[in-house]
Design a protein that fits this description.
Number of helices: 7
Mean pLDDT: 94
Radius of gyration: 20 Å
Largest sheet: none
Order of helices and strands: HHHHHHH
Structural class: mainly alpha
């Protein structure tokens, strides 16, 4: 993906997920090393607020709409709550108001887990709130795969 081609191939998507998996592993290792120092009610609260505010309202609206279109506000809620920027702001405010603590590892564990384990990133307005392949994307992938295979054949013939 670059600034002119805003899509991922299967390989670049897997590599991106792998990067988040490494960050997830690092956060989990830190949490395991500091198990006794984690305030678990704070950890659980930090972990679940992201989905309580950012996912559940949209998931409920999506199911009520029976897979039909839902308001963009659910996408905005999801994207704002599942952003490393907002998680950083929450962690920063917490550190200023309460103090730094290991329970804040819930934030990167949740967000990196969503990306690495489930493959969920921010949601564009034009796709289904729940994962469903968009017909235009399916067509793009088919055309891309066909073009890539043709280019490889031409390179082999020239060699």
């Amino acid at each position: 993906m670059d600034s002119h081609n805003l899509f991922l191939t299967r390989t670049t998507y897997r590599l991106l997920r792998a990067e988040y998996a490494v960050a997830l592993a690092a956060a989990i290792v830190l949490a395991l090393l500091h198990l006794g120092d984690i305030r678990w009610p704070v950890f659980v609260g930090m972990f679940v607020y992201i989905d309580v505010i950012g996912y559940l309202p949209g998931a409920i609206a999506y199911r009520r709409a029976r897979g039909g279109a839902i308001s963009r506000r659910y996408y905005l809620l999801y994207n704002s709550m599942h952003s490393l920027l907002s998680a950083g702001a929450v962690a920063g405010l917490w550190c200023l108001l309460v103090g730094p603590e290991w329970a804040l590892l819930a934030l990167p564990i949740h967000l990196c887990g969503d990306r690495a384990v489930f493959g969920n990133f921010l949601k564009p307005f034009g796709v289904s709130f729940e994962p469903v392949t968009h017909p235009a994307y399916k067509e793009l992938v088919n055309n891309y795969d066909r073009h890539t295979a043709q280019s490889e054949s031409e390179q082999l013939a020239a060699a």
